[in-house]
From TrEMBL:
Residues of the DUF218 domain: 44-147
Pfam families per the UniProt record, alphabetical: DUF218
Descriptive protein name: DUF218 domain-containing protein
Entry's Gene Ontology cellular component terms: plasma membrane
Top-level taxonomic group: Bacteria
Coiled coil: none
Classification via CDD domains: YdcF-like
């Protein structure tokens, strides 16, 4: 059964990975906000908040489906995100969607194409994602869209509140571990720029792998 309780013996390592993936960018006004599709509806909630704060005038929600989202968002991540943002008061005309992307690189490149097709060429974008996707999203964007200024933003929840919002600690830990592996692996494969991985992050990652959190490893 899913649980929201973080095991005490894993807490320090999970917190280490959680902190590593937070880029620490301060939200500020950008030309476009790009909400990256996932299983986490908090991305749509945070994107709507940013719009209502006047930090973005236009939104692109991007995402088809993955095995982790098909059941929750059967019509596609971007479609459900748009519907939820509209229910929170974002005008439909402020939202564009991209419904084909199945990975972060495609999220970014396909969103760029949607904007280009609409005659929109942003100088700055805000990538809005799950908290532990920030670093990978940033590294990917710098690789595939290097000329745009990019900052990352996520719903500002502490780890315990985020776990409660998802409702499944094992899923959160597995995703954290998987994203940590992808920082180095995707750079090695040429999908993203290289990021420094401190020794304490590598050690925490390895201990969580050894503890069996391997379902999201490549």
């Amino acid at each position: 059964m899913p649980t929201n309780q973080l095991p005490p013996d894993l807490q320090a390592d999970v917190e280490t990975l959680w902190a590593y993936h937070d880029m620490g960018h301060q939200p500020r006004r950008c030309d476009v906000g790009i909400g990256l599709g996932s299983h986490d509806l908090g991305v749509a909630i945070h994107t709507a908040d940013l719009y209502q704060q006047g930090l973005v005038d236009r939104i692109v929600f991007t995402g088809a489906n993955a095995p982790t989202t098909i059941e929750r968002f059967p019509r596609g991540e971007a479609v459900h995100y748009r519907e939820h943002a509209v229910s929170l008061g974002v005008p439909t005309e402020a939202i564009m969607i991209e419904t084909e992307a199945t990975n972060t690189s495609q999220n970014i490149t396909h969103s760029r194409q949607v904007l280009t097709d609409a005659g929109i060429h942003p100088a700055s974008i805000m990538l809005i994602s799950r908290p532990y996707q920030q670093r990978r999203a940033y590294a990917t964007c710098r690789k595939v869209w290097p000329e745009v200024e990019v900052i990352c933003s996520s719903r500002p929840l502490p780890l315990d509140e985020y776990i409660a919002s998802i409702g499944d600690i094992d899923r959160v830990i597995n995703m954290l571990v998987g994203d940590t592996q992808r920082i180095t692996e995707y750079a090695r494969r040429g999908f993203a720029i290289q990021q420094d991985v401190p020794d304490e992050v590598n050690a925490a990652y390895q201990r969580l792998v050894d503890a069996g959190y391997t379902s999201r490893l490549i």
